[in-house]
Amino acid sequence: MKRLMCLFASVVLMLGSGQALASVLSFKFQDKIQNDGVGTIDLFSPALKEKVSNGATLEAFRRDNNGALVFSVSLNEPNDGSENSESQGVAIESVELRLIYATETVVITDLSTVTYSLLLKKGNTNRALYSTIVGDSQSNRTSSDILSEMNGSSFDGTLRVPVARDLTDLMGATFTVRFLVVDRKLTDPEAFYDFAGADEEIALLSSADATYLDALAPGRALAPLTLNASGEALVNWTYYPSNDGYYVASYEDLFPKQGDYDFNDLVVAYRVAMDTNANSEVSRITGSGYLVARGAAYNHDWRLRIALPTWASGLATYNFYEASSLTPKLGFPKQQWVSGELDLLLAENIAGEFSDGSSTYVNTFHEQAVVEGPRFDFSVVFDLPVPFADIEEAPFDPYLYVYDTEYEVHLMGKSPVLGYSRNAQNSLTVFKDENNYPFALVIPDDFAPPLAAVDMGLAYPDYLEYVLSGGAQKTDWFRRPVVERVKNVPFKNW
Predict the structure, then answer these.
(1) 313-365: pLDDT as tens digits
(2) pTM for this structure?
(3) Which end of the chain has fewer CB atoms surrounding its CB within 10 Å, N or C?
(4) SS (H, E, C) 429-494
(5) Count of alpha carbons within 13 Å of 279, Cβ hemisphere only?
(6) Best CA proximity match to 68, nearest among 16, 9, 112
């Protein structure tokens, strides 16, 4: 009997005079947010035709949510960039709730969400705080109300629009949502909060379902730079490129000569995480990675540099491990003081550390068995927290020092930093050739390096167009290799 009374209470809302308002059971709309990131939703058009939505319906939801309409989006983002099935998100640039009465039209543009992030809108130069919706790929989520369309659904975060006036006499209503277009050339948090999936469903929530989803917080624990409306951190860790992904740094070590341009002279996988406090300040940076492949006669050091404010200081601790070992090599851990920048020598004298026993070439020949590479990790604890916005953006500055030539090899746009290298004295401080070809790349971790002596353009036919367009065209060139010309190295399973 108590269960029946609870269900009855959840579907009928009474005015003070005793007049019954419409049922308050969460439901989906027929219209969707399109894959261009914009959707105008007719609030009088439920997805199920047997449902009825009108002014009385919306007023019931407004009263149930204490003077607001609360929506939810079923995220349908691909496992691309830093998103994955466990955590994905979008940012909201604007909303417009248009309320059409017989004699006037009222437009409301205020909104609030549980989560926010500092993001760079495409075309802008500075990050700003934007509302976000975070979720995952669960498709059978249990609702707080079994009669609600949320029960067994895949809906994620909530979006709240305050409405101060009665909606009973509405003639019509629309809700327009515009997702933020971020600069997709950047990594997290922009890479996470972009949108690139199929159409997104949207639903109107009862207070019970809104409270349930807010408490469930799907995907939030793994989302990067998750803040509240005041810019305070809700999730401490921000991962680069993601909590389960890696950057892959690949090098051509004959710089400034192009050489065979097979980009497998050294291949390194790395990830970084930042621990943020309630003021969006970073108190600690950690990282780890593997040596993936080595197709060179030359010897190298591999370093990771992250620029910091000049006043920043702290203590870094780092380790190097032989393949499959859980115990650091003799002489580790090592420590160094950090001041103004983080520049760690994470893999030293690699020719002596990474081989297959009979060759200096490792994981670069077709017939060669895959050899597990050594790994490294590091942790930096700052003396004083460093503002997140003042730390160099990912993928940072992963670079190579080549013993045989005494040159550094960096990503395009970076500069040599070692006092003992020959780059500055020989005026070799630009890391691309006259045709705009780079000597170092950072690529997502589904990249398979070319086989030894196979030009990158032959292994990846779209690479040429990518380079000649200055990175504007064929940005996903690395997803379409000629399979017989590359070496798949499953380092994520090591």
Answers:
(1) 999 999 999 999 989 999 999 999 999 999 999 999 999 999 887 788 999 99
(2) 0.68
(3) N
(4) CCCECCCCCECEEEEECCCCCECCCCCHHHHCCCHHHHHHCCCCCCCCHHHCCCHHHECCCCHHHC
(5) 6
(6) 112
Task: Give Cβ neighbours of residue 57 (< 8 Å, ≥ 6 apart).
Answer: 22, 23
Give mean pLDDT, residues 243-253. Answer: 92
CA distance readout (Å), 82 to 268, 271, 445: 18, 12, 11
Q: Are 429 and 416 in contact (CB under 8 A)?
A: yes
3-class secondary structure for 343-362?
EEEEECCHHHCCCCCCCCEE
Give me the phi and psi of 210, to 5 degrees please: -65, -45
User: Other C-beta atoms within 10 Å of 469: how many?
Assistant: 12
Print the SS3 string covering 169-181: CCCEEEEEEEECC
- At 57-108, the pLDDT tens digits run 999 999 999 999 999 999 887 655 567 778 889 999 999 999 999 999 999 9
Domain boundary assignment for the chain:
12-222, 246-493
Q: What is the dihedral of CA 186, 192, 194, 198, to 10 degrees?
A: 140
